[in-house]
Amino acid sequence: MKHIKTKYEILRQKTYILIHGSGTIAGKTFDLILLGVILLSLLLIMMASISKFDNKYHSFFYISEWIITVFFSIEYILRIISNKKPLSYIFSFYGVVDLLSLLPMYLSFFIPGSEVLGVIRTLRLLRLFAILDLIPILNQSSHIKESLRASMNKIIVFVYFVIVMSIVLGTIMFMVEGGHNGFSNIPNSIYWCIVTMTTVGYGDIAPITPIGKTIASFIMIMGYGIIAVPTGIVTAELSRNRKSKDIKNNCPRCKTYIYNEFANYCYNCGEKLIDGTVEIN
Amino acid sequence: MKHIKTKYEILRQKTYILIHGSGTIAGKTFDLILLGVILLSLLLIMMASISKFDNKYHSFFYISEWIITVFFSIEYILRIISNKKPLSYIFSFYGVVDLLSLLPMYLSFFIPGSEVLGVIRTLRLLRLFAILDLIPILNQSSHIKESLRASMNKIIVFVYFVIVMSIVLGTIMFMVEGGHNGFSNIPNSIYWCIVTMTTVGYGDIAPITPIGKTIASFIMIMGYGIIAVPTGIVTAELSRNRKSKDIKNNCPRCKTYIYNEFANYCYNCGEKLIDGTVEIN
Amino acid sequence: MKHIKTKYEILRQKTYILIHGSGTIAGKTFDLILLGVILLSLLLIMMASISKFDNKYHSFFYISEWIITVFFSIEYILRIISNKKPLSYIFSFYGVVDLLSLLPMYLSFFIPGSEVLGVIRTLRLLRLFAILDLIPILNQSSHIKESLRASMNKIIVFVYFVIVMSIVLGTIMFMVEGGHNGFSNIPNSIYWCIVTMTTVGYGDIAPITPIGKTIASFIMIMGYGIIAVPTGIVTAELSRNRKSKDIKNNCPRCKTYIYNEFANYCYNCGEKLIDGTVEIN
Amino acid sequence: MKHIKTKYEILRQKTYILIHGSGTIAGKTFDLILLGVILLSLLLIMMASISKFDNKYHSFFYISEWIITVFFSIEYILRIISNKKPLSYIFSFYGVVDLLSLLPMYLSFFIPGSEVLGVIRTLRLLRLFAILDLIPILNQSSHIKESLRASMNKIIVFVYFVIVMSIVLGTIMFMVEGGHNGFSNIPNSIYWCIVTMTTVGYGDIAPITPIGKTIASFIMIMGYGIIAVPTGIVTAELSRNRKSKDIKNNCPRCKTYIYNEFANYCYNCGEKLIDGTVEIN
Question: PANTHER family from the xrefs (chains A, B, C, D) (predicted)?
Fold first, then answer.
């Protein structure tokens, strides 16, 4: 049975190669067309959101939406049937996004107006990450991803700290500014505090009383110092990551410091050094 | 006397375990309930601050406040009696916060309206740090705390410099903008200068005269460069801290450089290396 | 033929030295005059753009523009004829800028009003980089340039990520804020998202609905953390670059670690170390 | 002559100790009083700038100003006569600031209204740096100062780049936004560009046309990446500085790598290591 492939099996495999085989010409072409259609679809959604254009070309946008929806529907079905484990695709992040970007148009038969939810299709743009991973340049991202994953715990602690400080300081500002000047309630004051601590500073809410301004100044200078923390964490992680790759330091077995970078064997214990690289654990 | 425990003693110990013993099931449950009540109380305070909700559900908010106040009062008393050194708790940071978050409601019997000070309860949110310290992820924070403490002196120098510069430049801007355009007095101008140097930039006060704009541009570019300083300090500290943990370098006694990371004794003076780790002093 | 120089050849060489020979007195003088004229021309364009000045001194600005245009035209022709490969200059970045800064004035004979395009001349200011490279201080820039080039790939990945996130989050905000409050269409919402993530925060568009403010807070805190990534990348690159210059580590031939910083020969393979410096590959 | 001190000489020396001898009790007291008077004078200037207070307590402010002016005048004269090289003090930065903070009040006899220039006294606040240098904590600043001085050249290159980019991009924005929307002239557009690139973002000027918004987005993302450069420079410098202090690496004479941190002599060439520290040149 293993060697006998039904016609369907062969077709499925061909489809799989078409969709996933970015190394083949057919696969590359498919990826580029998909990339183009996603970008086009995005452009159409953006332009349709501008009322000036929508009033003029409404039917054009409507028909285009349907053509793109049909195209994406076919792609969605192909992805399911070509996959050996269709369920793992359907419930993957990309699978859910692909489905959600189709549904609104079909739903609009039953619930008129629901086609506006088509904007959810924008999320398909994230697939660009997958498609563009072909280009060697983007392989670099794995290094950054690794560092970010390693510093995730610390970033979470930091974000938690920022949120608690925002709640506490936001409440204090609400008491100080006495519910006026945009500080109309505590959630609004917390929102203002986040806007201030992150140094965004819209200015839609700004303190007016002298005490409020003094506290705000204190928050800003604190936020200015706090911005150093995530930067420090990521930088330390990136430097460390780099180091483990750049400099061969220790034998993985006896941990002896190895001077000769091109050593093939540890000079102390004779451990074979794989690929001439020694990792810091 | 040492081995004889009165009924009260046993009860106190049980209470202590309930409150502080986060390793036991009872302690964990207590912590989670406390966490929930704090978050709930916070949510109620926030919603009560929104006048739309307050007008509608005023009595609901009022009753809830009292229930939570009673709950916190019981917890406060338990904390005092269960502690062997009650005074050290009462005058600790958490003790003062716990008391301050109860007082306003009781004071409102004598001074009507003082219950609005209940918002001070938000500070109890800081206890989340203590509660969530259970979760191993947050143990990471000790590393950051350590680095921040080590770089505190330099950050203070830096903040002092920023404040002096803000006062000097704020005064200059007051002279330049001639007391108009929001630069109505020196404190306001200083406030504007801090808003600008920290790159928050509300825009509630902005220079209008050409000279004012030129000086402002200078301040911004300076502030842009200055932001590098705290970041540099913290990053250098974090990298250093990491190094002392990652690489075993020196014998704690004779400071001889040790190559073998898994060494148990210093090869020079024979000092026993605890847990196979060598600290950089 | 090689040794015989026509009068024209000699003239061309002299012109070449005048323009490019920043080591000679004539070349230096030429550079300084050019620097002065570019700055003057810039000042005139700026002042002419202020309607108050333009109304008063219009003819003065007009005549000055023509004098400067003639000066730059002569310089442009000299650069072409003095260059051995005139085409490589004409199609270089500076060549195109030089031409574009001349055209508008000449075009204004045929198309009245096109002289306002003269502002393109501002781009000539970039030549200051070339001119000021004389000053030794600026040689430092090569170090930064090198680090930036090395981290370019990672920065591109990062910028791509920021743009995708802005499109996705911008679309979500458009849906949430319902097309009001400045979030009038998707491109505007994306613009707002970039303004927020980069912590610029003009405040011309700001969320008003509670859900919008919550999402905005999330975007800000995320953006606050994200700012760490490019900083980390560049810092790691700069530190690495510095290291390769500061510490002599390995023999360029056999990569043996070399202790003696002033070593002239590798102690292992006898490789001559140029200038006493050893580079890390 | 060397050992004979006239009465005047002794008085001068006593005054010198009073002013400069921060180690003595008298000197410390003098410093603290001076600190207090400077802060008081600052507070008075600030309050006098608030028209509400000035209207009420004008004569009080006026008299206080005179008392402080007299106090500072005496201090100024003492500083001159106690110094062995009076001219070096008079023309030093502090000397000029001290004089400039006195002049306005005396000038107001001849030119009424010139006393408002008294705000220049704020610059005296910079003397706090000198006074507070007593406190050991602030000795840390020397480390930061050193790093900043070392990275000054690079920061200058960077600031120069930011300014050129601001001029070029500001001019482009002036052309794009067509002189409206606050981009009324080129200097204003440059000002806007600096406000944007430094992520301050007041919002007093903001692009309105779609092209303007697109360019602005590009500027912001660029500025976001550029902020990494000064941070990277300072961080690399601070890390380097720290390293040269933390780790003893090489003998200053033969540059041999020294393992033992507490070595008093280089184990290779016998060079005496001063204070047990070895500097990396």
Answer: POTASSIUM VOLTAGE-GATED CHANNEL PROTEIN SHAB, VOLTAGE-GATED POTASSIUM CHANNEL
Is the CB of A199 less than 8 angstroms away from the CB of B200? yes
Contact D194/B at CB under 8 A: yes
Architecture of domain A7-135: Up-down Bundle (1.20)
D198 near B CB under 8 A:
yes
The mean of the pLDDT values for chain D is 75
**Residue C124 has what DSSP assignment?**
G
| Angstroms from C118 CA to nearest CA on chain D | 10
Q: Is A114 helix (H, G, I), strand (E, B) or coil?
A: helix
Closest CB from D157, D168, D200 relative to C144: D157
CB A154 within 8 A of CB B144: yes
Q: What is the mean pLDDT of chain B?
A: 75
A132-172 tens-digit pLDDT: 654 445 455 566 677 777 777 777 777 877 888 888 888 88
Contact A198 C213 (CB under 8 A): no
C22-68 tens-digit pLDDT? 667 787 788 788 888 888 888 888 888 888 888 899 899 889 988 98
Q: Say how far apart CA C135 and CA C132 lie, in whole Å.
A: 6
Q: How far apart are CA B166 and CA B161, in angstroms?
A: 8
Q: Between chains, do A236 and B239 touch, taking CB under 8 Å as contact?
A: yes
Q: Do D45 and B174 touch (CB under 8 A)?
A: no
Q: What's the pLDDT tens digit per position in B105-129?
A: 888 778 776 666 666 777 777 666 6
> pLDDT tens, B52-65?
888 899 899 889 98
The pLDDT value recorded for residue B216 is 93
Q: Which residues in A lie closer than 8 A to residue C247 (C-beta atoms)?
A: none
Find chain A residues with C-beta within 8 A of B123's C-beta.
Answer: 168
Alpha-carbon separation of residue D52 from A212, B193, C83, D60 (angstroms):
19, 22, 70, 14
Distance (Å, whole) CA A162 – CA C221: 8
Measured between CA atoms, the residue of chain B closest to residue D49 is B185
Instruction: Report pTM.
Output: 0.79
Cβ of residue C281 closer than 8 Å to a chain A Cβ: no
Does residue C246 surpass a pLDDT of 50? no
Position D260 confidence tier, pLDDT thresholds 50, 70, 90: very low
Chain region(s) in chain D for CATH 1.20.120: 7-135
Mean pLDDT of B129-155: 63
From the options 3.30.1360.140, 3.30.70.100, 1.10.287.70, 3.30.450.20, give the CATH code of C141-249.
1.10.287.70
Q: Which residues of B touch D191 (CB under 8 A)?
A: 213-214, 216-217
Tell me which residue of A240, A242, A264 sits closest to A251, measured CA to CA.
Answer: A264
Q: Does D203 touch chain C (CB under 8 A)?
A: yes
Q: Which ranges in chain D are annotated with CATH 1.10.287.70? A: 141-249
Which two three-digit tokens encode residue D92? 């030093």
Sequence-ordered list of residues with C-beta below 8 angstroms from that of B269, at least 6 positions apart, any chain: B251, B253, B254, B256
